[in-house]
Specification:
The protein folds into 2 domains: 238 residues, Type I PLP-dependent aspartate aminotransferase-like (Major domain) (Aspartate Aminotransferase, domain 2), CATH 3.40.640.10; 123 residues, Aspartate Aminotransferase, domain 1. The model has no long low-confidence stretch (mean pLDDT 96). It is globular and about 70 Å long. The two termini are 14 Å apart. Helix content is 34%, strand content 15%. By secondary structure, the protein is an alpha/beta fold. It has a 7-stranded mixed β-sheet with strand order 1-9-8-7-4-2-3, with helices on both faces. Strands 12-13-14 form a 3-stranded antiparallel β-sheet, covered by helices on one side. Strands 5-6 form a two-stranded antiparallel ribbon.
Length: 392
């Protein structure tokens, strides 16, 4: 198999990391010039900017008016931990996991919190548990999109409308890229760093009226750290949902988040964001279809992620390698692309099987993905030739 020549065209933006993700097209440091710096985050101007992030996010995502939407510390991780520690334990809970982050929530519920009536549903990377086995008389904990496995739930039809329990959904790597069914979700968390290309460290949460009722009526039998506390005087604390955060936020990150939200509005809102994601996903699908040595980690198209697209190498020349050897060998490909300034940070997650994870969120330009693929092929075939030489 001949080694292709080095490509002549590089992506204009070679950032394909799954988090933090590429900045939106046209971004520059100049968009941060109005950041409210060196001042108290309790000042009216700072609180207004934080509240603007909330209101613009609600509008773009179409979150119902009776949902509480707020900003919490610790990125998506902090927001989801806060939800688990405040809300779970009132009834049984089904814990679903098929990748790294779901495994962390499972560990929280099963080992750290030791939730009563817990049931565990796990699947390997590239697969998903049998969703028909979920009992919606229980609370249900799941990720909408498995960031590290490239597996996304197949819509929301599996979630009962007449559920007795709450649904807790980690949506960070799909929100703003898919149309979430809000009537199916009682708790939804995300961060600014994924589809919108913002900076990390700040989490967001949306609570349905049912989740708010649980918060107001249930007192968990556990200590809750300050940064996770969502109650005040026994009821929901309204402050994080009005721009008064529980700890000091970065107003630089806030300004950047506002810039991303304004960009989203200018280009057409959620439909346009979703369209950009689908365009990116489709060019990856086309590349996989015409490239015999690469395939999706998720074999079922119905559960493939359209944002954190995760791939594996299926060339027999690599079969002789152990998993550790294969991982080390394939990680040379992103390094070779990085050295050429042709593609950054698209190795697999450290807990995933060896392969590639290419971010296809809305801030990525389709033409940059198209320019990336020849560089991956160039690096792959050089390495394959080396393996063939060793075999000879």
């Amino acid at each position: 198999m001949p080694v292709p020549q080095k490509p002549g065209v590089r992506p204009a933006n070679p950032c394909f990391s799954t988090g933090p993700c590429a900045k939106r097209p046209g971004w520059s440091f100049d968009v941060l010039k109005d950041a409210f710096l060196g001042r108290s985050h309790r000042h009216g101007t700072a609180k207004a900017k934080l509240n603007e992030v909330i209101t613009r996010s609600r509008a773009i995502l179409g979150i119902p008016d009776d949902f509480y939407v707020g900003i919490l510390p610790g990125s998506d991780t902090g927001a989801f931990e806060a939800a688990m520690w405040n809300l779970l334990g009132a009834r049984g809970v089904d814990l679903l996991a098929w990748e790294n982050f779901g495994n962390e929530w499972l560990k929280d519920g099963d080992i750290e919190m030791k939730l009563p009536g817990r049931r565990v549903f796990k699947a390997d990377f590239g697969e998903i548990p049998d969703l028909s086995q979920v009992d919606f008389n229980n609370d249900v904990v799941f990720t909408w999109n498995g960031t590290s496995s490239g597996v996304m739930v197949p819509g929301g039809d599996w979630i009962a409308d007449d559920r007795a329990g709450l649904t807790l959904c980690d949506a960070t790597s799909c929100i703003f890229g898919v149309d979430l069914p809000w009537h199916k979700l009682d708790v939804t968390t995300w961060s600014w760093q994924k589809v919108m290309g913002g900076e990390a460290a700040h989490g967001m949460i949306a609570l349905s009226p049912r989740a708010v009722e649980r918060l107001n009526t249930y007192e968990p039998d556990r200590a809750i750290p300050k940064v996770f506390r969502m109650k005040k005087n026994g009821k929901i604390n309204p402050e994080p949902f009005e721009g008064a955060t529980l700890n000091t936020p970065s107003m630089l990150c806030v300004e950047d988040a506002l810039d991303g939200l304004k960009w989203a509005e200018e280009i057409g809102g959620l439909p346009t964001l979703m369209g950009r994601v689908q365009s990116n996903y489709e060019v990856v699908c086309n590349w996989v279809e015409r490239t015999p040595w690469v395939d999706f980690l998720a074999t079922d198209p119905a559960i493939r992620s359209c944002t954190s697209v995760t791939l594996k190498v299926v060339d027999p020349a690599f079969d002789k390698l152990s998993e550790d050897e294969l991982r080390a060998t394939l990680r040379r490909i992103p390094k070779m692309c990085e050295a050429e300034e042709a593609g950054y940070d698209f190795s697999e997650h450290k807990s995933a099987p060896p392969g590639f994870r290419i971010w296809c969120g809305a801030t990525v330009e389709t033409k940059d993905l198209e320019a990336l693929f020849p560089w991956i092929e160039w690096a792959f075939h050089q390495i394959r030739a080396e393996l063939a030489g060793e075999a000879a």
